[in-house]
UniProtKB/TrEMBL annotation, chains A, B:
Keywords: DNA-binding, Transcription, Transcription regulation. This is Transcriptional regulator, ArsR family. It comes from the Bacteria. Pfam families: HTH_5. PANTHER family: TRANSCRIPTIONAL REGULATOR, ARSR FAMILY (PTHR33154), TRANSCRIPTIONAL REPRESSOR SDPR (PTHR33154:SF33). It comes from Flavobacterium defluvii. Residues 1-83 form the HTH arsR-type domain. GO terms for molecular function: DNA binding; DNA-binding transcription factor activity. SMART domains: HTH_ARSR. SUPFAM superfamilies: Winged helix' DNA-binding domain.
Length: 83, 83
DNA sequence: CAAATATATCGACTTTTCCCGATATATCAA
DNA sequence: TTGATATATCGGGAAAAGTCGATATATTTG
């Protein structure tokens, strides 16, 4: 999912019908591509959010998720320095 | 364990009695510090070895393990570029 | 070769993670 | 307000990972 969200335009064409990509991609799009149930995908996304890798924005009945690039940079640096 | 092996002289003083650190640290030293059973530590180390994070060298009845720094560098870069 | 020592492997049990269906909550549309 | 849609949360069963004791293998020493 994290890789998918790196190129949302390519991986989630259906998102165009939900107002574009500025806020991220909504759960239903990710679920359809993942082939897992709605509850599983929702839980995954909330875990990734708590871990700081993605950000959520609620707009109406939709929740949009997008990557937090800073977290990946930080993880990469942490592996370099601490591990 | 991976962090311990970054500074073997500091974390495994008992290793001095096993011929020093040039080949790495032997399993018994790591086991004592980890506080887990011998079998568990042996399995951990073999998993880390298969994953490429450490290298093993058998010398007599001892197996010495040491870090493979390249693997950490590669992981850090992989997170930067692919994730 | 036999006993001692260091490590590896195996089988079983426990704990954690994964994933689901059911249900709850929130928003939108009529 | 009611029904439809999107997402979140909950409880449980299945799968995977963690950990152990017992045992096997390899090496050294006497």
């Amino acid at each position: 999912m994290l890789e998918w969200l790196k190129e949302p335009e390519i991986n989630f064409p259906g998102q165009l019908e939900h107002g574009g990509f500025e806020h991220g991609v909504c759960v239903g799009q990710i679920q359809a591509k993942a082939g897992l149930t709605q509850s599983t995908v929702s839980e995954y996304l909330s875990i990734l959010q708590r871990a700081g890798f993605i950000e959520a924005k609620r707009v109406g009945q939709w929740t949009y998720y997008k990557r937090n690039e800073g977290a990946f940079e930080a993880l990469s640096k942490l592996i370099q320095s601490n591990l």
